[in-house]
Structures are given as C-alpha cells and as structure tokens.
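Protein modeling request. Please complete all fields; requests missing the sequence field cannot be processed.
Requester role: graduate student
Desired output: 3D structure, token encoding
Chains: 1
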Amino acid sequence: MKKLISILLAVSIAAVAFAQPHNARGHKGGHPDFEKIKAERVAFITSEVGLTSQEAEKFWPIYNKIEDEQKELMKAERSAYMALNKALEKGEGDTSALLNAYLDAKAKNVNLHVLNAKEYKKVLPVEKVAKFFSCDEKFRRQQIGRLQGHRAPGGGGKGFSRGGGKRV
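Delivered output (168 residues):
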C-alpha cells in the first residue's frame, strides 16, 4: 500500500510539474527544467511513435489542448483534496460529499487522455495512437526514475525497486 501511495504521489508531482504554464521560469515556484523536460517529451514521443511532420503538426496541438485541460482538472483535484483533508482534520463538514467530490475530480483527471483517445485517432492511425500511449508511459516512468535518483531505461519499471525488498 505504501508503494502504491508513493507511486501515486510521484505521478502527481510529475503531472503537476508538466502542467505548469509554458513560461514556468518566470513564475514563482516554476521548475527551471520544465522547458527541457517538455522538449525531451516531445522529441521522445515524436521519435518513438514515428510521427511525420504532417502528423506532428496535427497531433501536438490536440495534445497541448488536453494538457491544458489536465492542468485545470489538477487544480480542481487539489482543491477537492484540500477541502477533504481540512474537514477530516477539523472533524466537521460533509465528509461523504467531500470524498465524492475528490474522487470525481481524480477520476476526471486520470481518465482525460483515455477519454480523448478518439481525438488522437482523428489525426493518427490507431497503431501510432497505441505507440503514443506506450511511449508516454515510458517517458513518465523515466521521469519518476530520475526523481527517485534511478535510471529507468525503456520505462520497464525497474527504477521503482528500492532493492532487496519483497514485491507485494
């Protein structure tokens, strides 16, 4: 359970970092490597999926629009989480409604790209859409591995091991 929570926290942190405004360097709290990570993601996905220049011209604006939507959903998720946490700490408020609001916000955020796969399929063949999802996950895992101080080549998940421990 602790491992799942750690992974979810790392994913959330990575997603928050990726959802920052394009000029993150000029904003307080913006990660200085954001533009570098974004460029690496674009290059990695473009190369691994094998996007032609025509496909890339159509694909990346859709991807960026969905990422902007994700930024807003993450704000809603954070807000719902904070409200739920505050109610739990103070022992007051409608915990059931706050929990439902948080879970709803989380589900919308998690499912955003999945629900928008049809948009990707409008501009790419299904094989490249499948490659996109695979490559996006590989890239995400590599970034998590970097955050944890490990290298996760190919996103095989080996960067998640802390060594010697039993898998649950």
